[in-house]
């Protein structure tokens, strides 16, 4: 069975909720932010937020409330999920984790779901209420009580070290208390205990909001609802215990405006009602008063003073932050003050000292400070959502000062994968350009993996083989890269760049002075003591301002002026020095097979010891394990063998001998270093492979090393050059080759959770070598790089998984679609602008096809626009404004081909035209936009009129597929039969209407689909169509020979009749949001995807008799072949479905009815977020893993509504998928998460029609967390906690291992059989799969490199 591995490359960044309070400690204010299924706890440190912890829960967070009982010094969190679950959690100070106090659910089998879930907590923490169903309010009492009064229980049971809580159901709901591991003991009542649940029925069916009134002796709930006349009213209920039961007793009622949408509890029991343009205050005596607020909707509110509740912050839908101050008098009028502009907020929370957190779904989240005096805004600054009003109206001052920004990609409506540059191969990773942002903060986000190097300066220099950079001064110190860190207080520094060529050496340099902002100029040094008539083998700055140069003839010691101070050459064995390395005052040189250890003593070079090796030395290194300390070993690699080893310093005795596994290879670069807390020996070979050995020092003597983990990866095809450098405070290793990478340690790096060695690809190719520049003030944290005949200085990005670069757009330019054309290396975006938006110039003066007044034939509400951007700089090259009432809907890049010519570098645009008085589009267009890179010219070279909206377009075999309403059109580029009407015309400086004089866009064929086709995906000759309501349909393209050319009388074109044949469809009726074809497995992996046949279950004839006897499908029916076409479907209920087409070639040839043949379901999984787009591509460099070759193929990327970028990889090895599934189940059941919610319920497939278990998918976010566990916890998870006992007989274990894989089936809709792996219980992976813990760790570590 083929699994789909789903993992987040960039987790959801949209803020669901934000609250603040004393959660971690009673002496500080904490901020708690909910994003997706994660809870983040922050502490404010000066003007920034410091992350204290991040916890994932088994559910999509819907609501978070902070409350603090009177008997607690710290507060509690009430969290509610989207699947009717709640939990009360607290913070454990000692372990820095969240602890579940109470948990449960409020699911009603017979209830009708409301428009949204409402949550309210009593101001004295006596009770909280949740309303998720029409006319039902679930009330949960809290607080200390006697044991007899408790309406819940927790059964604790020892089951292999696993606590199994038992839910008690009450009124269709489930409530349970906190569980702890260990033996059962008496329950002590706490203020966080939940004493049961009451499902109370009210008359209000359409509830809009609710809150608990403050300063009331008994809990009172104010409910805002809409009656049958669509009028908004407020009714206040009192929660009272009547005859031993909780009831809601009506107290008072109010009539408010029809736009009232939010309730806020005020001091004294009053209730504040916020509407579209006004606010109303409802007093306890039944009176109310109103005042104008402004024509905008309130998104969220928070109190500046929580106890007094006199100042309220409002964030509205236009991106404004407003302060409402309430007077202390009974008749005092509130004052409203606008503070400034912010991103449209989804949650705001006041922390302390005037700092407010602005959480957003539409743009970046911010930490801002409220000022008492306004600050003037820079008029030259670009328009952004933080510093400008909606519509581009600029404000002069603001009371809001941004302090810290948090990148947010939500909502991702479309994305495309951009290559590194024209002509780059597939091995280089690309980047993702996403359309994100809404309202006043639209943007294009560039997301990429690895390390980008920003070029600072450079010059042409051909023939450089190696380079070193060193800084000389009076008081330098050893840096972690082996160079010299220079005291910044020294007034002058001299930076030298030593470039070695085939027959000579060039020494370049510049001088820096403190306090000088003058640009530095690199120049070649005058003739001095440096040897320049032969190549250099090593160079570095050493102590006391000296520098060391190693050449084939001698070892030199030079002063800071370049004068030669001392010269050393080997005496016992004269000859050319073949290899050398320098670190601090230590030098290692090799002459043939003899190694010399030399030290710098004052102004002399002294040979300390020598040793002879069996072969000539190919590479040598003398870096220290610990920064700032002298080296204790010398690493050497030998010519003509696969041997590498370590020599102890200073006696040069053999300390460790290693042989490179596999087919060996010639070592060309060797490095000893410490990454994280692990010592590594890195060996770069001449064929681009890299071996890394993890060395473990003994407890008695840390210099006595043994080999631990070993791994070999292929980075490139050229010899590797390994160089250590400091990247933003942490040590990393640059592996330079034709495809370079940066090695770094990921993780904490302590003894319990050792750091992992990770690889980050570099965005530059063909790098020969690098050298870190230490101590330079002009180029801090920079590298000197040699690549492609150029010597340049660049500054690398911080080493992290993903980098997000934002290109802000004007508020009127929300991007809807984006496409990338590799041939011209350009992007195209489409967006719709409002008629009230100013005509701000976005790029050149191209305003569209209508050169006159675009509103002369009417006044449309919106205008469509398409823009061409440079893929590297994101500069707008040309823009085109569409005709009135025409909106752009779809976009793609394609190449059109025909017998008489082809059209490349073309963008295909699909539009719709909705005229006044029409409910739906009756016509549209398919436009061909050709971008001429040389002339910087955008031309409309072809168009095709359609009878409806063009919802999707995609390139297909030199043609274009277009989804028009409920039809599928196949358009082609064909020789023109009649001349075009009119001649070419220029619309603006860069935009032309120039129909091709020889060719035109025509329809080859069409095929009716279902209701409305919104998405397309192609794989070979198959086409999958995603429908708005009718799930997906599958079609096959056929080109049949005929006696004449279709649509043309030219004899130059082949006679072909095109046809789209329906094959199968999915009858589940889901609302499709994205579809994609899954690439077929590699041929060498086909046999690994089928389980072995079991004789007693399969029978001699392939399993038909066994299938009938046991009531399960036969073996041949159970598994669709690996070559069957598979498709991924994302629906509006946040699920992912994998479908498979099992129709044979003969059935397709016979024309099987699409209504009779259905796509079978091979997998279902609940993601918890809506996928809007799925694209083929990868974010990482393809680094083959010899242990798991081509088993994990990250071929699909997706973007979600909440700003997540994910990777979907196919696991093309059945056994590895089975191991990962067992690991996933063990982690889900053995490792509790905050809330103690069920993982199976979280990932279960959910829709409005059915709920069923998930299968066929692997949760990468959960599985990769295995590497972050302590070794003891990893062993516990791997062994299944000792909960499963298997027979000791080997044949029975093997039989169970096979049976678990294929003998469990379940029926799904209609006649489709679900081929799934059984839902295992917790199991011992070692016994069931015959693998070791180290193997599982290597397997998971290989998966982390997919993103």
UniProtKB/TrEMBL annotation:
This is DNA damage-binding protein 1. Keywords: Nucleus. Residues 866-1075, 1126-1268 form the RSE1/DDB1/CPSF1 C-terminal domain. GO terms for molecular function: nucleic acid binding. It comes from the Eukaryota. Residues 14-403 form the RSE1/DDB1/CPSF1 first beta-propeller domain. Residues 457-790 form the RSE1/DDB1/CPSF1 second beta-propeller domain. The keyword Nucleus applies. It holds the Pfam family Beta-prop_RSE1_2nd. It is found in: Nucleus. GO terms for cellular component: nucleus. Its main location: nucleus. The lineage of its organism: Eukaryota, Fungi, Fungi incertae sedis, Zoopagomycota, Kickxellomycotina.
């Amino acid at each position: 069975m083929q699994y789909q591995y789903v993992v987040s490359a960039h987790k959801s960044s949209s803020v669901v909720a934000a609250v603040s309070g004393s959660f971690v400690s009673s002496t500080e204010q904490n901020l708690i932010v909910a994003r997706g299924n994660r809870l983040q706890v922050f502490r404010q440190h000066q003007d920034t937020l410091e992350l204290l912890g991040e916890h994932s829960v088994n559910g999509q967070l819907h609501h978070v409330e902070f409350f603090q009982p009177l008997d607690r010094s710290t507060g509690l969190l009430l969290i509610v999920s989207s699947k009717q679950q709640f939990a009360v959690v607290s913070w454990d100070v000692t372990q820095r984790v969240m602890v579940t106090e109470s948990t449960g659910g409020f699911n009603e089998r017979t209830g009708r779901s409301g428009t949204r879930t409402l949550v309210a907590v009593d101001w004295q923490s006596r009770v909280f209420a949740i309303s998720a169903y029409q006319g039902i309010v679930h009330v949960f009492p809290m607080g200390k009580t006697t044991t007899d009064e408790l309406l819940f229980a927790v059964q604790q049971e020892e089951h292999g070290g696993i606590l199994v809580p038992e839910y008690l159901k009450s009124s269709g709901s489930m409530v349970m208390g906190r569980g702890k591991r260990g033996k059962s003991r008496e329950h002590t009542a706490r203020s966080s205990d939940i004493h049961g649940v009451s499902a109370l029925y009210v008359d209000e069916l359409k509830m809009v909001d609710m809150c608990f009134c403050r300063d009331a002796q008994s809990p009172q709930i104010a409910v805002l609802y809409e009656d049958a006349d669509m009028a908004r009213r407020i009714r206040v209920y009192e929660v009272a215990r009547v005859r031993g039961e909780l009831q809601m007793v009506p107290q008072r009622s109010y009539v408010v405006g029809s736009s009232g949408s939010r309730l806020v509890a005020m001091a004294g029991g009053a209730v504040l009602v916020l509407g579209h343009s006004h606010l109303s205050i409802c007093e306890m005596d039944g009176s109310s008063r109103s005042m104008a607020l402004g024509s905008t909707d309130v998104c969220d509110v928070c109190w500046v003073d929580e106890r007094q509740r006199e100042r309220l912050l409002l964030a509205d839908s236009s991106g404004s932050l407003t302060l409402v101050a309430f007077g202390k008098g009974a008749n005092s009028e509130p004052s409203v003050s606008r503070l400034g502009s912010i991103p449209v907020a989804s949650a705001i929370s006041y922390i302390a000292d005037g700092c407010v957190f602005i959480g957003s779904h539409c743009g970046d989240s911010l930490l801002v400070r409220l000022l008492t005096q306004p600050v003037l805004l820079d008029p030259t600054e670009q328009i952004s959502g933080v510093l400008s009003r909606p519509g581009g109206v600029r404000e002069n001052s603001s009371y809001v000062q941004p302090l810290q920004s948090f990148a947010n990609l939500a909502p991702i409506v479309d994305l495309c994968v951009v290559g590194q540059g024209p002509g780059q191969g597939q091995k280089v990773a690309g980047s993702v350009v996403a359309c994100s942002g809404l309202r006043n903060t639209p943007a294009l986000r560039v997301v990429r993996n690895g390390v980008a190097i920003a070029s600072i300066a450079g010059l042409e220099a051909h023939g450089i083989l190696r380079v070193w950079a060193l800084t000389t001064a009076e008081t330098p110190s050893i840096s972690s890269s082996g160079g010299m860190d220079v005291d910044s207080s020294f007034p002058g520094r001299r930076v030298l760049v030593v470039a070695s060529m085939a027959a000579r050496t060039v020494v370049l340099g510049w001088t820096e002075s403190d306090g000088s902002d003058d640009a530095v100029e690199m120049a070649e040094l005058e003739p001095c003591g440096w040897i320049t008539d032969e190549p250099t083998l090593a160079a570095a700055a050493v102590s006391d301002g000296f520098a060391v140069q190693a050449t084939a003839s001698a070892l030199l010691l030079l002063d800071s002026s370049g004068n030669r101070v001392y010269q050393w050459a080997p005496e016992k064995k004269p000859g050319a020095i073949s290899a050398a390395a320098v670190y601090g005052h230590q030098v290692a040189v090799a002459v043939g097979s003899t190694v010399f250890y030399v030290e710098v003593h004052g102004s002399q070079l002294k040979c300390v010891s020598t040793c002879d090796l069996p072969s000539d030395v190919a590479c040598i290194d003398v870096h220290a394990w610990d920064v700032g300390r002298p080296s204790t070993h010398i690493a050497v690699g030998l010519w003509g063998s696969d041997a590498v080893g370590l020599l102890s310093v200073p006696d040069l005795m053999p300390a460790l001998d290693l042989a490179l596994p596999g087919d060996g290879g010639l070592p060309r670069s060797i490095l000893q270093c410490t990454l994280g807390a692990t010592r590594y020996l890195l060996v770069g070979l001449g064929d681009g492979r890299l071996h890394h050995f993890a060395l473990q020092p003994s407890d008695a003597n840390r210099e006595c090393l043994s080999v631990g983990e070993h791994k070999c990866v292929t980075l490139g095809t050229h010899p590797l050059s390994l160089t250590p450098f400091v990247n933003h405070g942490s040590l990393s290793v640059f592996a330079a080759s034709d495809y370079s990478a940066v090695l770094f340690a990921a993780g904490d790096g302590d003894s319990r959770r050792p750091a992992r060695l990770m690889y980050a690809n570099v965005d530059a190719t063909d790098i020969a070598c690098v050298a870190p520049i230490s101590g330079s003030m002009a180029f801090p944290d920079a590298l000197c790089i040699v690549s492609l005949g150029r010597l340049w200085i660049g500054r690398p990005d911080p080493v992290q998984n993903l980098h997000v670069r934002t290109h802000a757009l004007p508020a009127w330019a929300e991007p809807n679609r984006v496409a990338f054309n590799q041939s011209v290396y350009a992007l195209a975006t489409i967006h719709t602008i409002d008629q009230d938006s100013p005509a701000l110039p976005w790029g050149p003066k191209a305003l569209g096809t209508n050169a006159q007044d675009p509103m002369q034939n009417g006044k449309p509400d919106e205008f469509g626009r398409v823009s061409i951007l440079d893929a590297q700089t994101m500069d707008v090259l040309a823009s085109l404004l569409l005709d009135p009432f025409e909106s752009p809907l779809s976009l793609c890049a394609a190449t059109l081909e025909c017998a008489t010519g082809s059209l490349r570098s073309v963008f295909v645009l699909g539009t719709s035209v909705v005229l006044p008085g029409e409910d739906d589009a009756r016509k549209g267009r398919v436009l061909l936009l050709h971008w001429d890179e040389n002339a910087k010219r955008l031309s409309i070279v072809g168009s095709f009129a359609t009878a409806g909206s063009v919802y999707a377009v995609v390139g297909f075999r030199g043609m274009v597929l277009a989804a028009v309403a409920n039809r599928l059109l196949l358009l082609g580029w064909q020789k023109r039969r009649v001349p075009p009407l009119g001649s070419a015309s220029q619309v603006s400086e860069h935009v032309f209407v120039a129909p091709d004089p020889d060719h035109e866009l025509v329809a080859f064929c069409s095929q009716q689909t279902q209701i409305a086709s919104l998405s397309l995906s192609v794989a070979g000759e198959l086409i999958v169509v995603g429908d708005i309501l009718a799930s997906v349909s599958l079609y096959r393209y056929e080109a049949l020979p005929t006696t004449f050319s279709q649509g043309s009388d030219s004899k130059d074109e082949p006679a072909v009749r095109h046809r789209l044949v329906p094959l199968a469809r999915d009858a589940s009726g889901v609302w499709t949001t994205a579809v994609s074809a899954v690439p077929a497995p590699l041929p060498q992996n086909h046999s690994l995807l089928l389980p072995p046949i079991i004789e007693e279950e399969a029978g001699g004839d392939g399993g038909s008799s066994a299938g009938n006897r046991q009531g399960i499908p036969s073996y041949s029916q159970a598994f669709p072949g690996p070559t069957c076409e598979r498709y991924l479907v994302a629906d509006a209920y946040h699920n992912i479905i994998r479908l498979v087409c099992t129709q044979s070639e003969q059935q397709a040839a016979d024309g099987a009815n699409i209504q009779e043949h259905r796509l079978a379901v091979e997998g279902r999984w609940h993601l918890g977020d809506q996928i809007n787009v799925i694209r083929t591509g990868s974010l990482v460099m393809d680094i083959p893993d010899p242990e798991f070759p081509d088993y994990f193929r990250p071929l699909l990327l997706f973007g979600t509504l909440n700003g997540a970028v994910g990777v979907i990889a196919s696991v093309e090895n059945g056994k590895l998928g089975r191991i990962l599934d067992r690991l996933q189940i063990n982690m889900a059941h053995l490792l509790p998460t905050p809330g103690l919610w069920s993982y199976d319920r979280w990932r279960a497939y959910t829709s409005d029609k059915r709920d069923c278990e998930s299968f066929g998918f692997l949760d990468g976010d959960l599985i990769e967390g295995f590497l972050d566990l302590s070794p003891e916890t990893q062993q516990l998870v791997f062994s299944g906690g000792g909960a499963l006992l298997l027979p000791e007989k080997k044949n029975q274990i093997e039989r169970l291992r096979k049976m678990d894989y294929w003998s469990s089936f379940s029926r799904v809709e209609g006649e489709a059989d679900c081929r799934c792996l059984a839902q295992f219980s917790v199991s011992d992976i070692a016994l069931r799969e015959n693998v070791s813990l180290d193997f599982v760790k290597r397997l998971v570590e290989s998966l982390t490199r997919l993103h």
